[in-house]
Amino acid sequence: MRLHRLDITAFGPFGGEQSVDFDALSAAGLFLLHGPTGAGKTSVLDAVCYALYGAVPGARQGMTLRSDHADPGTRTQVTLDLTVAGRRLEITRQPPWERPKLRGTGTTTDKAQTWLREYDAAAGAWRDLSRSHQEIGEEISRLLGMSREQFCQVVLLPQGDFARFLRADAEARGRLLGRLFDTQRFADVEKRLADRRRATEAQVREGDAALLADAHRMQQAAGDAMELPELAPGEPGLADAVLAAAAVARATAREQLTVAHCRLAAAESAHAAAGRALEETRELARLQERFAQARERARLLEERAGDHRAAQARMERSRKAEAVAPALELRDAAEADHERAAREESRARALLPETYAEAGATGLAAAARRAAEELGGLESGRRAEQRLAVLLDERAGLDRQERADDGVLADAEQWLAGWEETRAGLQARIDAAQEAATRAEQLAERREPAQRRVRAARERDRLAAETEAAAAEVRRAEQETLAAKEHWLEVKERRLDGIAAELAARLADGEPCAVCGATEHPAPARKDAGHVDREAEDAALAAYQQAQQRRDEAERRHGAVREALAAAGAEAGDDPLDRLAREADEIERLFGQARRDASALHAAQEELRRAEQERERALLEEELAHARGTAASVAARAAQLERRAALLTDAAEAVRAAEDAAQRLKDADARLADAAFRAGFDTPRDAAEALLSDADHRALQRRLDAWQAEEAAVRALLAEADAAAAAQQPPADVAAAERAATDAAERLRAAASARDAAARRCAELDRLSAHAAQGVRRLAPLREEYDRVARLAALTAGTSADNERRMRLESYVLAARLEQVAAAATARLQRMSSGRYTLVHSDDRTGRGRSGLGLHVVDAWTGRERDTATLSGGETFFASLALALGLADVVTDEAGGVRLDTLFIDEGFGSLDDQTLDEVLDVLDSLRERDRSVGIVSHVADLRRRVHAQLEVVKGRTGSDLRRRGH
Fold first, then answer.
1. Which of 36, 246, 557, 926 has its CA 20 to 30 A from that of 201?
2. What pLDDT score does 477 carry?
3. Most confident listed range (321-330, 532-541, 801-810)
4. Nearest 10 degrees: CA dihedral of 459, 462, 465, 469?
5. Closest to 480 in 3D by CA, of 131, 127, 143
C-alpha cells in the first residue's frame, strides 16, 4: 500500500481545505509530521484511517469528525489517493452533515456518502466503481487484508498504542498475523477435521443404535432372560457389553436346550419300552398262530409220502446217467471235429506247390516262418515307398522320369552333402522375421497411446485459445455489470434527491403532509428538468440485472472451457503438439518397418519346409533302392511274400488240426465206455436212455425240492421252542399293548416340541449374535476412523494430550511466520540497540493457556532471555518499531501478502537519547532501499534538524493549516 495524496475539508482541527502530497514527502523515504501539541498531527492519520475504513482509530471513536472552525455551508470531506494491490484508487468520504435548511429556518441532516474510483491507465482517466458504503468497505478490507484495528496497529501505530503488538497476547497476535499471512486454509483444515469428527461420531452412534436394536431382538428371543447394558449409543464399551450379554443369553439358552434334551431322552426311553412291549405281544400272537399252522401242514405231508418215494427213485437213476452225459457229448463233438479237419486239410494241400504235398505240419510251419521273416524285413521299405510317392506328388511330377538306381543314389548323395548349410540359412531368415514380428507387437502397444496424446494436444491448444477468449468475455461482462450498477445507483440517488418533488405532486390543500404532517403547503417542491421517476429507476435496475445475467453466463462458459482444457491437458501433458506429433510419426514409421520385416516369416518357413521335404525324398529313394531287389517295387515283392506265408500257415494249421481231431475222437470213445461202467450201466446205450431232458429233470427236481422244503419247514416249526412255549401261554392282547404305545408316543412328541423350541431359541440367538458380531466387525473400521479423526482434530485444535504445547495448527504455521518476523526485526533492533538486544520467538506455554506465539528479548550484555514487558520505555519503543518494520518486510516478501510501502510512527521518540535516536533514524532511513517511506509524527524539536522532508501543522484561531517544508 502506497499513499499518493490526501485532501481534507472541514475535518478535525482543519477548518478549510488542506492537501498532503505524500509522493513529494516520500521521495526522501523519511519525512516528519510535526507541530505543537493539539495542532492536529494525529488528525492527519485519522483522516487516512477514515478515508479507508469510514472510522477513526478506536481511541478517538467518540470524537466529532467535523471541524468546529468550518463554515456552516462547507461540508466535511476526506479524499485519499493510494495504490494498493497494484490498483490506483481514490476514496472520497463525507460523514453525516447537519446543514442549514435551504428554505426556512433550522437545520437538516444529509446522509453520509462514499465514492470509490479507479484510475484507468489505458484511458488516462478515473473510472467510477461504487457508491455503496458496504461494497467499498468490503473491497478496501479485501485489498488491504486487515481490519481497521489491525491497520492502526501495523501501519499507523497511534499514540498510546505504540507497543500494543509487542505486548499483545498470543490470541491477539494470532488474529493479526492470520489476516496478514492468509492462514485461513489451516483454520479450515481444523474445522474440516472437527466436522469430520462429528460426522464419524454420528455414524458410530448410528451403528451402536443398530447394535442395540439387535440386542433388543436377542432379549425377545431369549424370553426376557437377557439383561441389556445401560449404555447409550456412542459410549465406549457398548459393543463389548452387548456381545457379553449375548454370550450369557446363548449360554442360558444352551442350558435350557440341554434340559429339553434330557426330557426328550426320558420320553424316548419310555416310548421305546412301550414299543418293545407291543412288539413282544405281537410276536407272541404270531408264534401262537404259526405253531397251529405247522401242525396242519404236517398232516398234509403224511398223506403224500408214497408219491414222493417213487419220484426219488426216478431222480436217482437220472443222476447216475448224468455222470455219463459229458462223455457222450464229448464223443459226438470229437467225431464232428475230425470230419471237418479232414476236409480242411485236403483243401489247403491242394493250394500248395507240389514240393509241399507230403510235408508235415512242422515243415509247413517252418516254411511259413521264413516267408514272414522276409516280409517283415520289407515293412520299412513299404512305408518309405508310400512316403516317397506322396513327396513325388508334391514335387509336381518330378518322379515321371525314370532314372537308373545308380543315378538316383548319386543325386541323393550330392544333394544331402549341402543340406546342413542350406537349413542353417533358412532358419536364420525365420528367426529374423520372428524377431521383427515381436518388435511390431511392442510398437503396436505404443502406437495408440501416442495418437491419443496427439489428439488431446490439438484439443488442448484449441481450448487454450477458447479459454483466453472466454476470460476476455468475462472481463468485458464484469465491466458492463459494474457500469450498469453504477448507472442504477446514480439513477436511484437522483430519484432520492428529487423524491420531495414526487411527494409534493400528491399534496392537497387541507390534507396532512406524509413527511412533516402539516396541512398547509406554502412552498411545495417542483420537479426540475433532470428529475428521475420510478420507471427510470426500474429500467436502470433491469439493465443492471441483465448485465449480471450476461456476466454469470460468461463465467459459466469460461468454467466449462477451463474444465475441458484441464481434461485435455491431463491427457496430453505439458509437451508441445509438434513434439508429440513427431513421436507419433516415428512410432508409426518403426511399426510399418517391423511389419514389412515380419511379412517375410511365412515365405521363409515355406522354403524351409520344401527343403526338408526334398531331403526326406532323397533319403527315401536311397533306402528303396536296397529294398526292391529284383521286383518291380517293394509292394510287389511284399505281395509275393505275403501270399506264400499265408498259404504255408493255413496248410500247417489244417494238418495240425486234423491230427488233433483224430486223437480226440479216439480218446472220447475210451472215456465213454469207462464212464458207463462206473455209473452202473451195462452199455453206453442204457445210460443214454436213463437220461432225462432238461425240462423233465427241472420239473421232477422242483417236486422233490418242494416236498423237502415243506417237510423241513414243518419240522423246524414244530421244533421251535419259542413257538411251542407260546402255544402253551394264554392268547396275546395286542390292542392293550397298542394303546400303551400310543400314549408313550404322545409324550415323546411333547418333549420333542419343547426340545425344538429350545433349539430354535439357540439358533435364533446364534444368528442374532453372529449378526451383532458382524455389525461390530463392520463398525470397527469406522470406529477406528473416528478415533483417528478425533485424535487428529484434537491435535490440530491443541486440545490433545499429545500436543504438549497446546498449539493449534494455525498457530503452528503462524509461529513459523513470527520467527521470520522476529528475525527481520532483529536485524534492525541490533542496530538500534548497538547490538545489545535480539528478538526471538518462543513457543512456551503461559500458565494454562496455549503456546506458539510468544516473543522474548535476548540481552547480549547479560546473556539471558526475558519477556519483552521488562524493557524500559525507550527500549520498548525501538523494539516495537523494529518489530513493526520486520512485520512489514515479511508481509511484503510473503507471496500473496499485502505490501506496506507507507508507515506512520506516532510519537515515542522523546524517550530516546541522542545516540539511540541516531541509530533509529539510520534504520528508518535504510528503508528506502525497499522503496518504502516512513512518516514520523512527533513534536520533538531535535527531529526537525535531523529529518529534512517535513509536513508542519500550524494551529491558529481559525483552525490549523498544513505546510510542507524541506525537500
1. 246
2. 85
3. 532-541
4. -90
5. 127
